[in-house]
Amino acid sequence: MRLGRGIIGRQALRLRSPLLLLIGVLAASCGKVGAPLPPLRSLPARLEGMRAEQQGDGIRLVLPRPNLEALAARGFVVDRLEIYRALESRGAVALPSEDAFLERARLLAVLDRRELARSPAEEGLTIEDGPIATFDRRRLYAARLVDTRGRFGPLSDIVWVEPQGDVPTPPHALRATDEEQGVVLLTWAPPTRNVDGSAPPNVLGYNVYRRRASDPHFGPPLNGSTLVTETRLRDRDFQYGTEYVYLVRAVAPARDGTLIESRDSTPIRFTPRDTFPPAPPEGVIAASAQGRISLFWTANSEPDVVGYYIYRAPSAEAPESAWVRLNASPHPLTTYRDETVRPGERYAYRITAVDRAGNESRPSTIVVQEVL
From CA 334, how far away is CA 295, in angstroms rounded? Predict the structure, then answer.
């Protein structure tokens, strides 16, 4: 993307005297006459759907990506896209005409053909204008395509923004920590001022965003359409072991009744890890019949519990080294039959719960049963 600052005007050749007119006629009669150029406005080269919105101390422009192949098939081979900006007094009654806009507009940015081709059509094109130094002018924007023959396509609609200075600066000190029960706790510090330097910051709430580290873009806010009014949010919809990127934006009320977001906080990367074991199983009972011992217990309430380990020892007072785990992998049921016992002997049992991450709970209460 190339940035420019020159004033843009209509490029037209004006014949101002009979002598220039005669020269033009003679020059035209000496060369080979080519096929007449089709009128540009009959070509589908006009960008539709451009929009502009304030974000923090800048303006974010979103433009549709032109269909380069379709335009080329109709004789308009795109060379570049030019984006213009003009300033005028706040509260102007009407938008300027196309000619009046181009007379005073400045070239804000240029996207060449390679940049246009790289951008996926469904994502559109994004241009940032800022930071804004003063907030006393209305900002107008428009764009047009230019082909490889130097011809300008039609100008897009002119969109405008009247930026306001009482928009908060970004939140800061964003942090993420693991909590029990499948929660990532996000905390941050609030802004201290607005983008125009005024205080206190005009904060209505916050929007929190998350994406997978492998994804290119953020989706809608984690908090949906309801703003977060505290400087914390608990994220419960994620996958352990997946790396995420989080950021937060402060939100201010706009004068037209909509909302304006701050710029992004500094993003953080975080991979949730489940290091929290389940609770010990409860309600363990033992019974014996036909030379076997059966164990029963209440299922754990944690949704990520995948099974249980059953331990046995000669007595409840046996040292830790005497406890033997009877199953190699987590037992998925809440009943267990021990058939490796001898009639007339007494055995002690305790049970632990195991979650999906391999975390093992503390042992349950010990039960003792004689083999009958």
Answer: 8
Q: DSSP alpha helices (H): ranges in 32-149?
A: 68-73, 98-104, 113-118
And the tokens for 368? 């003792």
Asked if 50 and 129 count as a contact pair (C-beta separation under 8 A), the reply is no
Yes or no: say if 33 and 25 are a contact pair by the CB < 8 Å rule.
no
> Where on the phi/psi map is residue 282: left (φ > 0), alpha (ψ -120 to 50), or beta?
beta
Give the 3-state secondary structure percentages of the chain, helix then strand then coil, rounded to 5.
Answer: 10, 40, 50
User: pTM of the prediction?
Assistant: 0.76
Pairing, β 324-325 against β 367-370: unpaired
Q: What letter would DSSP give residue 329?
A: S
Half-sphere exposure of 166 (CA within 13 A, CB side): 11
Cβ contacts of residue 69 below 8 Å, gap of 6+?
Answer: none
Q: How many CA atoms lie within 13 A of 269 on its CB side?
A: 7
Please state the separation of Cα 43 from the chain's center in Å. Answer: 36
CA distance 54 to 233: 25
* 277 close to 316: Cβ distance less than 8 angstroms: no
What are the DSSP calls for 76-90, one per residue?
--EEEEEEEEEEEET
Q: Which 3 state secondary structure label does DSSP give 262?
A: coil
Q: Token pair of 133, please?
A: 């130094």
Residue ranges of domains in the chain, CATH in brackets? 18-27+39-161 (2.60.40.10), 172-270 (2.60.40.10), 282-370 (2.60.40.10)
Residues in the chain: 372
Greatest CA separation for the chain: 127
Can the peptide bond before residue 200 be classed as cis, meaning omega within 30 degrees of 0? yes
Quote the CA–CA distance of 281 and 298 in Å, as a whole number. 7
Query: What phi and psi values does residue 204 have, to the nearest 5 degrees?
Result: -90, -30
Instruction: Please say whether the beta carbons of 116 and 68 come within 8 A.
Output: yes
Running along the chain, 372 residues long, what does each successive block of 10 average in pLDDT? 38 35 36 46 76 97 93 94 95 89 96 86 84 94 96 95 97 96 95 97 98 95 97 96 97 94 98 95 97 97 95 97 97 97 97 96 98 95
Within 10 angstroms of residue 33's Cβ, the number of other Cβ atoms is: 7
